[in-house]
Amino acid sequence: MHELFAQAFPPRLRMVSNVLREFVEGSEEAHWSFRPANRGPSLIELVMDALYTAHAFLNAIEKGRVSQGLETRRIKGRPPESKAALLAEFDMMVEMAEAASQALSTEQLQKPVEHPLGWTTSLENMLWFMRDHLLHHAGQLSVYFRCLGLPEVEVADLVPMQAAR
After folding, report:
1. Can you name the CATH fold of 2-164?
2. What is the pLDDT of residue 79?
3. Which residues contact 85 (CB under 8 A, 6 or more apart)?
4. Is 128 left (phi over 0), alpha (psi -120 to 50) or beta?
5. pLDDT of 136
6. Which of 22, 67, 72, 109 has the smallest C-beta neighbourhood within 10 Å, fewest atoms?
7. What pLDDT is stored for residue 70 in this prediction?
8. Average pLDDT of each block of 10 consecutive residues along the chain (165 residues)?
9. How far is CA 147 from CA 71, 120, 142, 151, 155, in A?
10. Rounded-to-integer distance, Cα 83 and Cα 10, Å
11. HEC string of the chain?
């Protein structure tokens, strides 16, 4: 199981991360406050939630619980200084998450992990869930881009990943 996870998970995480990165690169800071119908999260809040998910991902691996930790509290509610700073932090978190996921043993993957909403599952299932959460944000961002008339980012290639686990 560990070998399969180590082969399957990091590339899929990287694919989702690359799509999210394209959304950031394709937007301008003037677009970041956009909310469809002036409701729900803004474009930048969706991107930042993806960054929070990467922080929570690492905490799940390191601490056995899904939490956003001190790093997330440091950046939560604070807009990024610039697009370059946001991309640099996102890339750093993805690289750390990839490295951490590749180093997991079968025993670690089977350990129970608690989610803040009160449910518990194996670390492996939680990591797939968190990857799917990033995929969900990629879909949301594609709608935002369409509403803004920005060039579309291809997300259709990510859909088969759902069945690939």
Report:
1. Four Helix Bundle (Hemerythrin (Met), subunit A) (1.20.120)
2. 66
3. none
4. alpha
5. 83
6. 67
7. 44
8. 71 78 85 86 82 75 64 56 82 82 86 82 86 82 89 67 48
9. 32, 37, 9, 10, 16
10. 25
11. CHHHHHHHHHHHHHHHHHHHHHHHHHCCHHHCCCCHHHCCCCHHHHHHHHHHHHHHHHHHHHHCECCCHHHHHHHCCCCCCCHHHHHHHHHHHHHHHHHHHHCCCHHHHHCEEECCCCCEEEHHHHHHHHHHHHHHHHHHHHHHHHHHCCCCCCCHHHHHHHHHC
b/e for 46-78, b at 16 or more Cβ within 10 A? bbbbbbbbbbbbbbbbeeebbebbebbeebeee
**In this structure, what token pair is assigned to residue 147?**
């509403």
* 103 C-beta neighbours (distance < 10 Å), count: 10
Whether the pTM exceeds 0.70: the reply is yes
Sequence spans of domains, the chain? 2-164
For residue 141, count CB atoms less than 10 angstroms from its CB and return exposed for 0-12, middle for 13-18, buried for 19 or more: buried
